[in-house]
Specification:
By secondary structure, the protein is mainly beta. Keywords: Signal.
Length: 445
């Protein structure tokens, strides 16, 4: 176990059967306090676990230590205080002072709300061994443990858990490997699971049953040191929301989404936004055909050089800021994508200062009635050619004249082969508003 501060709280299950025979001989009335066995009133054994049946007796047993001079450090096999539904006993309070708490049993039959009141914020290491119980898992997943840096799961079972939401939110954990934990196929969300884990460097979710997961929203958001992610074997066929999934993963250089079943995803808003070091993304056989909104999907990825969405079949009606401020982007492949009926392309490529050519000819770029094209290519200072062949801008009545409005001085050619007269007229109006209206030619043949 990795110990980084004095405060350690270990949460685990230890069976009463493993205690010495001398302890078991007090059947129904055994409390092990720092290795010294003593008896107390109102104690019974339930499912091979020690149970306090009276809150006051539990408090007295721990607080008085029955006259022994050695401080209470470990309380073995205490399941719960039967008449204390708020768990407002000295069990947790004493753990804060001593730095160690051992709780045991099938943790499904009492209220763990006290653990969510900020009293265990100093926890640095958590080990779950052979723990069974959904309610305990739910409570523990909401702990605000900003000092938590090490977590292990060994032979644990949470058979009815449906959510891993906020499981390690804001913790100081440095790595996480899925294993040793059994959850049901009813798991439906991983939202915020690692949100704001700013020390996290490596994650492997290989083997996690994700068949019914619908949300990956904010899964790795603000994991500023995350550089290695393994999602191999994960089945995301039910996922509909990938919004902010990798938002602000500053150290992430490459992401492999190839082969992931994402065909029901509808939202990819800000999915990769703010990934400062991200240089490549593998979308091979990644189906985004049902996406309806990809706002800011790649915004502020200054190191991203190439985006190939040809195999992803991206279909989106909201592309606002999709590639905004991708300063190093020099190649975008959108063939096989479907932007038919798109309603918002505001600032879609704004600030892509390295981009020299954009080809929209193979992506059914047919904006809907009143679609907003405001500043779509503004600040693309190296842009020389845009291919609108086969596109139809005739219904774009909102801000089409501002397509190339500012800092598109390198623009020379607009291809419009097969475009209708209304589209050519709108493109000419946009050229007239540009920095270099006399230097841009529209090619129609």
């Amino acid at each position: 176990m990795n110990i980084k501060t004095k405060s350690i709280i270990t949460l685990c299950l230890t069976a009463l059967a493993s205690m010495p025979l001398s302890a078991q001989s007090y059947f129904g009335s055994v409390v092990d306090i720092d290795g010294t066995y003593t008896t107390a009133k109102n104690i019974k054994v339930e499912a091979n676990q020690v149970v306090f049946t009276d809150h006051k007796d539990a408090t007295h047993t721990i607080a008085s230590n029955h006259g022994y001079s050695t401080p209470v450090k470990v309380i073995h096999d205490v399941l719960y205080c039967e008449n204390d539904e708020t768990m407002n006993s000295e069990l947790v309070n004493k753990a804060v002072k001593t730095g160690q708490l051992t709780l045991s049993g099938t943790l499904n039959n009492h209220n763990w709300s006290l653990l969510n009141e900020g009293k265990l914020n100093g926890i640095t290491s958590a080990h779950f061994h052979n723990v069974i119980g959904d309610e305990a898992f739910t409570a523990l997943s909401n702990l605000k443990c900003s000092s938590l840096s090490y977590v292990t799961f060994e032979d644990c079972s949470f058979p009815n858990v449906t959510s891993l939401e906020r499981l390690l939110y804001g913790s100081a954990i440095t790595s996480f490997t899925w294993g040793g934990m059994n959850v049901s196929g009813n798991l439906n969300t991983l939202s915020y699971m690692f949100h704001d884990c700013q020390s996290l460097q490596s994650v492997s979710l290989k083997g996690l049953n994700t068949n019914n997961v619908t949300s990956l929203n904010n899964l790795f958001c603000n994991c500023k040191n995350l550089s290695n992610i393994d999602l191999s074997g994960c089945d995301f066929i039910s996922v509909t929301d990938c919004g902010n999934m990798f938002y602000n993963c500053d150290k992430l250089q490459a992401i492999d989404l190839s082969g992931l079943k994402l065909q029901n995803v509808k939202t990819t808003n800000a999915m990769f936004r703010g990934c400062d070091m991200l240089a490549s993304i593998n979308f091979t056989d990644c189906d985004f055909s049902k996406v309806t909104s990809s706002t800011e999907m790649f915004q502020n990825c200054p190191r991203l050089q190439t985006v190939d969405l040809s195999g992803a079949k991206l279909s989106s009606n909201n592309c606002e800021g999709m590639f905004k401020y991708c300063n190093d982007l020099n190649s975008v492949t959108l063939s096989n994508c479907n932007f038919e009926g798109v309603t918002n392309c505001r600032e879609m490529f704004r600030g892509c200062t390295s981009l020299k050519e954009i080809d929209l000819s193979g992506c059914k770029f047919i904006p809907a009635d009143g679609a907003d094209l405001y500043f779509m290519f503004v600040d693309c200072s190296s842009l020389e050619t845009v291919d609108f062949s086969g596109c139809d801008l005739s219904k774009s009545t909102n801000n089409h004249e501002y397509l190339f409005y500012i800092n598109c001085k390198a623009l020379k050619t607009i291809r419009a082969v097969g475009c209708n007269d209304a589209t050519i007229t709108k493109l000419q109006e946009a050229i007239n508003r540009s920095d270099n209206p006399s230097g841009v030619a529209i090619v129609t043949k």
